[in-house]
Amino acid sequence: MTGEQMDNLRVVGQSVRKVDAMGMACGLEQYVGDYDVSDALVGYVVPSPYAHARIKKIDASRARAIPGVHAVLTWQDLPRNVHTTAGQGYVEPSPYDSFILDNKVRFVGDRVALVAADTIEIAEQAGRALEIDWEILEPVFDAEKAMLPGAPVIHDEPEAHMPIPVPYDASINMAASASMGAGDLDSVLKSSHLAYSQTYSTHYGQHCPIEPHICLGYLDPRDRVVLVSSTQVPFHARRITAQALGIPVRRIRVIKPRIGGGFGAKQEVLLEQAVAALVLATRRKILIKLSRTEEFLSRTRHPIKVSLNGGFNADGTINGIRMRVLSNTGAYGSHALTVMCNCGSKVLPLYRMRAVAFDAKAVYTNLPVGGAYRGYGATQAAFAMEVFMDEVAEKLGIDPLELRRRNHILPGESSPVFAALGEGKPGVEQRIGSSGMARCLTLGAQAIDWDGKRGKPGDGAVRRGIGMCALMQGSSIPEIDMASVSMKLNDDGSFNLACGATDLGTGSDTVLAQIAAEVLGVTVDDVIVTSSDTDLTPFDVGAYASSTTYLSGEAARRAAVDIGEQIKAVAAAMLGPGVDPSKLVLEDKQVKAPDGRSVPLGDVAMRSLYQDNQHQIASIASAISKKSPPPFAAHFAEVLVDTETGQVTVVKYVAAVDCGTAINPKLAEGQVEGAVLNGISYALTEEYLFDDKGRMRNAGFADYKIFSTADQPELQTILVPTWEDTGPYGAKSVSEICINGPCPAISNAIYDAVGVRLRDTPFTPPKVLAAIRSKGR
Amino acid sequence: MRISTTINGVAHTFECEPGATLLEVLRSLGYKSVKQGCDHEGTCGACTVLLDGEAVLSCITPAPRAAGHRITTVEALGDPSHPHPLQEAFVDAGAVQCGYCTPGMILAASALLDKVPSPTRAQIAEALSGNLCRCTGYVKIFDAVENAAAAMHGRQHHDR
């Protein structure tokens, strides 16, 4: 299908070295903490000890008097500009319910005050020296109870509002609500051979980038605030910091150096406004770096309850499905609406159906704040949908693989969900262009030996099972996301490529260089990438929504095409009269004419810079997305379940993925493998444990277990190439989709092994054992 | 207190608080490849360095412990012009994503290969189990260590 299009490619489709990898392997690449911080003050956020309390009075005079303390800021010292910390495009589809500091705290770990001091010990001492008259308020920790009449109101401040016209009611702790429908679902359910309902729930999780959030700030000689930040969204960080502090955007520069992982946690404007406030208060260099403990209380994955109600024919045809979503957004509504909407928009369109209904609410509680996390709602809802499908397959006596085959959406087909569900507004209608779903199902099933292994648990204490699931995601947010790239030609025929796109370890600098190199007939070494600096690189929404390869890659392709045309025009003049620039091709670092003559790119550069009609050959191009083509995947898990301990071990995991063209197959595999292992770890061991006061009891790697090499199962990635016409060189996204598979695939495998349904994540030994024992009774 | 040690082959004498960790001292001396990812509790491995060739967690190693010993950070293994086979292998295998765990991971692997030139997967898993990576799923890290082991034996690189 794609052979022909791929045949002519020389750089795209090659696993070239990641451009920054050698510097990283030699310890030379710079992360925020590696800047010169020897003269920086330590910035510190004093955490709330209470889940819900009002600061009736706060006196910082004792704290300020401590030697080595340079500033203590309380809510009284800062402008009260309501904003969201969600690093989204403007106007953000997240409630404006945050202040840099407030006179109220809403979860344990919320912000009480900001301190700048010589050392962290002095800063913590200053925090303890604050004299605060607290009014302790009743907390609410249960999302279902939070919306009952009489529940404590978490956002009772008058400023809290939704900046876009969607339902929001802080007086009942409702951070967002959305619904859509198509077709007559009730009658479809009534007339179906099988109507089945079930409820599933997912738990808190943290991204755990090995580099926690960190931001360095200082005033430059022109009195501008420079923020060197570990962020996925430098341009949103600049805009929201300006908004929160009430200073002009022009006074802020955000520099993104190398980032030690993000996974969505750093799609949050979390530290920038606090650092900037302390910089302005002290006129000193300020560094805030979160401890690992603090990182767990920064942003999390929204815990979500998903109820499904579906009608099916005896042959497995899905007639209709209703999805009800209840999302716990924690103390603030960051990404509340959009994560919740993604539950529907990135899951329901996977299957054809005559009728569909979606009804979702996001609720405030006095627990840690939800946010963007790889998968972004699809993780939570795909767990529900794909276990539901497994249950339905069993009830109908159909192989679960076959049930997917009969129902999954095909190229040329659409879903009413695409048009109905967007990000705070209607979505964008789209037809599926490319899909490798069918092939993913087939190749994945072969790799795991689906037919040979399924339904053979054995009879020992340790049972074996296999399970599967089908998945989709999107590629960018249609009609919202924008990316731009600029390029210029250097003396030797090399190029600078500047992008706002945010490589946070994903390899996007490399992918963009490959795309530009492909267009220009050069190698990746000839394309010098700079990302990202709000003073120097053009705008990009940033690294989220599976958009960088698809959208920023398209901007890179366009910028390269444009600069290529300029190069051809100069080369045509050099080749003499009568040469038609449109007949020239860029190849082997030269401009080649049909008659065999050629001009090296370096000669074109030297002429245009020094010799004749001098000008800088340069381009800038933007891309917006008209659609969000889904990548597709089929995942298969083989597990062992110890019936005496409840221990679940994944022994083999197969992920077959259609990401369109893999611009760099090794980097694409790396995205799959990383997402899968994070997903397995989330499914089996990662868990937030709270005490009855809302305090997280296990905020550290000693007690919050993420997988290491010792836990790693055999992971097999199968890239299934397709060609997406709207993407650069046929590419779609790959970064998020694969984190959605492990929860359902493992749950279904556990069922195959021991016949118990795990409908609440994570599948810890006590939970699995309890399920096995209750089945035995 | 005053500590004399050798870092990457260079003799250093420095002043430190008795409670200072080796991590803090190394970073303040400019060895920025040594990263911090947990709260000085030795749970992430990003701060791994070699002490007389043994992988240690510098965030829980008191700085005075370095007195009279040889400390090696990843900067000493090689540079982009002359990379160590492990650095080369990590880059070629695609084992480097965000790169934050990479220096510690490479040093842990280096300590392993010094002792066990051709490790099994189980030996690699055990040797690197204290070095957390959230990006890669470890698949390509295993590949990289195996490829480096082969390269260091003068054998051909093998690709899975």
Which keywords apply here?
heterodimer; A: 777 residues; alpha+beta; Aldehyde Oxidoreductase, domain 4; 3 domains; seven-stranded mixed sheet; five-stranded mixed sheet; globular; B: Ubiquitin-like (UB roll); DNA polymerase, domain 1; 5 helices
Short description:
The complex is a heterodimer of chains A (777) and B (160). Chain A is α+β, with helices and mostly antiparallel strands.
Write the layout of secondary structure elements.
The complex is a heterodimer of chains A (777) and B (160).
Chain A (H helix, E strand, L loop, with lengths): L2 H5 L13 H5 L15 E7 L5 E7 L1 H4 L4 E5 L30 E2 L5 E7 L2 H9 L2 E6 L6 H4 L27 E9 L2 H7 L2 E8 L12 E6 L5 E5 L4 H12 L6 E4 L16 H11 L3 E4 L2 H5 L7 E9 L5 E13 L5 H10 L9 E10 L13 H19 L3 H8 L8 H5 L16 H12 L1 H4 L8 E11 L9 E8 L5 E5 L8 H13 L6 E4 L17 H28 L9 E3 L2 E3 L5 E3 H11 L6 E7 L7 E11 L5 E11 L6 H20 L29 E6 L22 H13 L10 H12 L1
Parallel strand pairs in A: 1-12, 10-11, 14-15, 18-19, 25-26
Antiparallel strand pairs in A: 1-5, 2-4, 2-6, 3-5, 7-15, 8-13, 9-10, 9-12, 13-14, 16-24, 17-18, 17-23, 20-21, 21-22, 24-25
Chain B lengths: L1 E6 L2 E6 L6 H7 L19 E4 L2 E4 L12 E3 L12 H9 L8 H14 L5 H8 L10 H14 L8
Parallel strand pairs in B: 1-5
Antiparallel strand pairs in B: 1-2, 3-4, 3-5
Helix pairs in contact in B: 2-5, 3-4
> What Rg of chain B is obtained from the alpha carbons, in whole angstroms?
15 Å
Low-confidence stretches of chain A: none
Biggest sheet strand order of chain B reads 2-1-5-3-4
- The third-level CATH topology of the largest domain in chain A is Aldehyde Oxidoreductase, domain 3
Tally of DSSP β-strands of chain B: 5
Share of helical residues of chain B: 25-40%
The fraction of residues in strands of chain A falls at: 15-25%
Biggest sheet architecture of chain A: 7 strands, mixed
